[in-house]
Amino acid sequence: MKINLILLTAVFFFLFFSCSDPVSQTEKEATVKTLVEGTLLAGTHILFWDGTDKNEQFVSEGTYYVLLYTQALTYPEYRITALAGGTGKTNESPIKYIDNMPAITGIEYADPDTFHIEDGTNIRFTLDEDTGIRLTIRNRE
Q1: Interval 14-28: pLDDT, tens
Q2: N or C: which end of the chain has fewer CB within 10 A?
Q3: Looking at the whole model, is its pTM more than 0.85?
Q4: Cα distance between residue 101 and residue 105, in whole Å
């Protein structure tokens, strides 16, 4: 009985640690910033990306990818283009939750999807159920 318990415990820890994170090492290295990680309510959400990386430094000009992971699925990435500098006005919208929207999970758009780094951009996504999520910005270069 003791051997079965030890074996079951070992299998559980192996499965938990090997399967708990859907992100590969390559994707982790390409992650510029994680905008949100945790449980969110069903509905439409708008998050602001201020154009900075995980060290709070402005990113370089280029193409970036927004990726939404939920407990059930990884959704297709959404491509945005960052231009150098800023226009002197921010695109910032406070982090919002909008109720009573269509229930289609995924990233709907970034506003604007071509933006000046120092102005930032808003990312809108909808969840069809309360779920744990991770929303990241990635760069493949």
Answers
A1: 443 444 455 566 666
A2: N
A3: no
A4: 11
